[in-house]
Amino acid sequence: MRVVRGRRSGVVIAVAVHSTQAGPAIGGCRIKPYPGWRDGVDDVVRLARAMTEKAALAGLRHGGGKAVIMDADAVLDERHRLLVLEDLAEVITSLDGAYLTGPDIGSAPADMEIIHRLTGGLAFCRPESSGGSGNSSIATAHGVLAALEAAVDHVFGTGALAGLRVGVIGYGSVGRLVADELAARGCAVTTGDLDESRRATAEAAGLTWSAEDLLGEEFDVLVPAAVGGLLSEERARTCRAGLIVGPANNQLTHDDVASTLHERGITWVPDVVASAGGIIHAVCREELGLTEEETTPRIRAIGTTVTEILTGARDSGTTPQAAARDLAARRRTAVPA
Ligand code: PHE
Question: What is residue 304's DSSP assignment?
Fold first, then answer.
């Protein structure tokens, strides 16, 4: 773990490497404000740990890591953003290849291009025009849809999505792709986002916009696609969805929340499984040299993993979280693809 105050930017940057057992740690660079630097450090540690599990469940030869840049305002201005990225690149370089970064909340392929250049290649998802695999949001959304289809099949006994009432929390880069696609497939989709300026686009796509707390509303499927920490013990006790599956990282405030959801008959698909499309796509395209056609089935395989986890949980009477951990441990010791 490295926590530095960037000597060029003055911004606090934390990089956590949770595991390099299976290979170099992989995980995105998150740029957002935190109440204090301690909160950012706690977050990066949790996020890095989740990436280890995510990579193992995705069958990748990688461990987990994450970077957070604890400011949002400081990077609004292009010149200052460059200074922040230079500071981050210095930290990444000092880790000698143990950590490979990628885009996450607040960062984009253009940032990855800069980090890639400054670190001599330690960043995924540069723009396609620069030889990278580009924006990972589309692949992440495909992975979420594969997870959602498999989970709907498991919970409701039918693969048909038409007619389902779906709530999508967050209409950002991944949330909007998932929400629009579900609406196109005949689901009744309600969405909301702290950023009200997204409302017009959502409504134009045929979605219902809501400023209400979607966690308290009744849905067949709830898709958390905003920042994590949505499901606290208390919220899990009042949540009214049948199934929860979405790309937001670290959706539970605490591990015990998984049991609360389970006891209330709510099926929760661990975010480490549902959100893996982005890293699978980046690694397949940039590291394994696979084509788009060869990569797609690898992303779709998230559905098979979800089925395996939910069936395992049902058969053994455990939570999907416990079943996912179990599967991650088994996949880690198996020879990864
Ligand atoms: N935001 C991605 C994730 O959490 C991070 C990422 C994407 C990292 C692509 C590398 C490549 O999975």
Answer: H
What are the C-alpha distances in Å from 293 to residues 124, 223, 281, 299? Answer: 19, 27, 11, 11
Q: What pLDDT sits at residue 240?
A: 93
pLDDT at 186: 97
Contacts of 172 (CB under 8 A, 6+ apart): 105, 193, 195, 198, 225, 226
| DSSP for residue 274 | H
102 Cβ below 6 A of ligand 1: yes
96 and 197 in a single domain? The answer is no
Q: Which of 18, 26, 135 maximizes ligand 1 atoms within 8 Å of its Cβ, making it the mutation to test the pocket?
A: 26
Report the separation in Å between the CA atom of 30 and the middle of ligand 1, taken as the mean of its atom positions. 10
Q: Determine if residue 19 is labeled as part of a ligand binding site.
A: no
Looking at residue 198, its pLDDT comes to 97
Query: Does 143 lie in the same domain as 31?
Result: no
**Is 65 annotated as a binding-site member?**
no
Domain membership of residue 298 (yes or no) is no
Residue minimizing CA distance to atom 9 of ligand 1: 279
- pLDDT at res. 335: 52
Angle at 103 between CA 16 and CA 84, to 5 degrees: 70
pLDDT at 49: 96
pTM: 0.96
pLDDT along the chain (337 residues), means of 10: 95 97 97 94 96 97 97 80 97 98 96 98 98 96 98 93 97 96 97 96 96 94 92 96 96 96 97 98 98 98 98 97 95 67
Radius of gyration of the chain (CA): 19
Residue whose CA lies nearest to ligand 1 atom number 10: 102
| Residue 175 among known ligand-binding residues | yes
Kindly state whether residues 81 and 177 are assigned to the same domain.
no
* Ligand 1 pocket check for 47: Cβ under 6 Å: no
Task: Indicate whether 165 and 310 sit together in one domain.
Answer: yes
Token pair listed for 53: 């599990």
